Amino acid sequence: MRPLIIAFVLVWLAGALPRPLCADTQPSTAVDAPSDQEPTLKERFIDSLPPAVGDDLDIDAWGWAGISQTNYENQRYYDAELGLAITKSFEQRIAIGAQGNFIDANGTRRGELEQGYASIKLSDATQTLLTIGKFNANIGTEQRDFWNRTTATTSLLFAAKPQDLLGVMITQPIGDSGLRVRAFLSEGFESAYDFNQSPSAGVTAQYTPNRKLEFAATGWVGPGFVGYEGRHIQQPFSRAYGGSDGDVGASVVENWEGPSLYAERGATLLFADGSCIIRPTSDLTLTGECLVGTTGTDDDRFGWAGFLLMANYDLTDQLHVYGRWSYLNDSDMLITGAEQRCQELSIGAGYRVFDGWELRGEYRHDFSNATPDFDTVSADLTFTY
Asked: Which of 277, 300, 330, 341 is 20 to 30 A away from residue 383, measured at CA?
């Protein structure tokens, strides 16, 4: 546990405010208003730095810890993650950012560079933004990190789409229409990186006509994957729980890493994702998402498809409840490593203990045509500094 304790101390010393790091957001031009409040630890630390370093410098830190108990062979899993992000802006035109994470997944510990990028504002008139490096993909409705989400576990769709991109992206707002287009080139679809093939290309269009509606659609084309004896060759992370491919209990908590495709690279991948967020009232948020992917040759095609529905309701300023259903057709065993059509139903609640700290509890039921049904109870804590 010593690495986890050291990482926690680093997060505590960072003293950052809870603000997500987004590679596709242009550097802020806002000027902080004078405040009578005592400066935070983060503000005192930045003020102590030389002006050339401290000016336009931002430091953010987050953490998450969770424990899950399933009735599948009475298995229990715990996870913890600490994240530290640093962003430096230069004259509100260039921003350089990085986010590193330390993860303890049931005793398997590792560090990772989640983001490392440079963003350049190419034009003040058009607000065109160029981003280069490794950054969050922001495809669909689920956020990449636990501290930015409202649920205790991820849906079945989370592992069926990219979570990070390694490449280049152009972000272009279309005037005041509420439409924003992001075109990108990425090394690949899954979280591992292999530069022996041509890059993938894609575009995401986001439309927000008002605060009550959000629409997004993503199209993707690039090197694909062809099933090969059910084996993976590009798994981006070690299996944290040491189980076999049929360890269905571990799949609930392993899912938050993103795609880990069990297939050989080859042919062409076509992928599409569409999502919608509706806010009928200020307290109620309804979410829908669908995705489909297909890859293979002229002789044979493989693919997967999924759907998600979710509702979140704020009972008070501190307490919210949610319900979620997701479905994944993975009959060609590309995403989960098993020929199955699986579903999950989840209900849960989150309680803001105090600013920056939220405690979540969730009951989840998973069922499939290929594996036994099982239930999972999760307790999670997210915190920010």
From this structure: 277
**Residue environment code for 74-97, b if the CB has 16+ CB neighbours within 10 A, otherwise e:** ebebebbbbbbbbbbbeeeeebeb
pTM of the model: 0.84
Q: Which of 377, 155, 163 is nearest to 287 (CA)?
A: 155
Please answer whether residues 103 and 111 qualify as being in contact, where contact means their C-beta atoms are separated by less than 8 angstroms. yes
Give the Cα separation of 340 and 287 in Å (integer): 25
Q: How far apart are CA 169 and CA 10, in angstroms?
A: 31
Residues 6+ apart with CB under 8 A from 366: 248, 251, 252, 342, 343, 344, 373, 374, 375, 376
Pairwise CA distance, residues 6 & 11, whole Å: 9
Of the candidates 247, 256, 202, 236, the one whose C-alpha atom is nearest the C-alpha of residue 79 is 256
Q: Mind listing the pLDDT tens digit for each residue in 233-273? A: 555 444 444 444 445 556 666 666 677 777 777 789 999 99
